[in-house]
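Progress note, project year one: complex with NAP.
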Amino acid sequence: MDIGIVGGTGALGSGLAVRLAAAGVRVTIGSRARERAAVRATELSERAGAPVAGAANEDLLAPGVPLAVALPFDEAAPFLESVRARLSPGAVIVDATVPVRFEGGGPRLVELPEGSGTAHLAARLPEGVSLVGALKTLPAAVLGRLETPLECDDLVYGDNAEARARVIALLARIAGLRPVDVGGLDAAATVERMSILAIGLNRRHKVKGSRWRVVGL
Ligand SMILES: NC(=O)c1ccc[n+]([C@@H]2O[C@H](COP(=O)([O-])OP(=O)(O)OC[C@H]3O[C@@H](n4cnc5c(N)ncnc54)[C@H](OP(=O)(O)O)[C@@H]3O)[C@@H](O)[C@H]2O)c1
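Model obtained:
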């Protein structure tokens, strides 16, 4: 396994799994229910033309293997707290969650005392475990359709430069995706707002796949 995806049966996690597997990355998707992960993994393997494995979320932790969290935001902290004791120094967690609520018809950022969703999760991790924010601005509707060229950037941040570089190297294997290093955890609040702006753009312009590309880099 090169990466485990917690909540990998969902829209974002499944899209990520298909893209990575098609690029030759060994992916295991997780679910609260092992059987659901297995069924979804079989479907995703067929779509990717390459194997995807399925497991229970809590069985995805493996030494040296990055773990991507693709759960609804409110579920991410409880999950990380539930596995906290098993996270060793050096572990790399990828935070794909967006702190968003749909109230009054539109997407609203959830304001957090730590300043961002990623900082909220980082505060719950043991010393030496690196949290890298990534995938937050990628629309699942496009990610999951292999036939649609991605043609976009992914904004990747986190305080540990080595962990950031590892995640960037993995995501760079996805065809048409350019992971861009945007620096430390301070970037999280901006990137999360960009996710919410993209959701708003989709609604306003009646599309499903608005996404970001940085020019001039
Ligand atoms: N959708 C997008 O376009 C997109 C883009 C960028 C980032 N994101 C972020 O990525 C994350 C996942 O998004 P998504 O659209 O894939 O979400 P989702 O489909 O609603 O949920 C993902 C998975 O989380 C698990 N789950 C659902 N409710 C849960 C609960 N109460 N407790 C524990 N696990 C639960 C489910 O897996 P099981 O039932 O199999 O356990 C589900 O398949 C979110 O934080 C979202 O903000 C989404």
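The helical segments are 11-22, 34-48, 73-83, 117-122, 140-143, 161-171, 188-205.
Residues 7, 9-13, 31-33, 36, 70-73, 75, 96-98, 100, 135-136, 138-140, 195 surround NAP (CB under 6 Å).
No further modelling is planned for this target in the current period.
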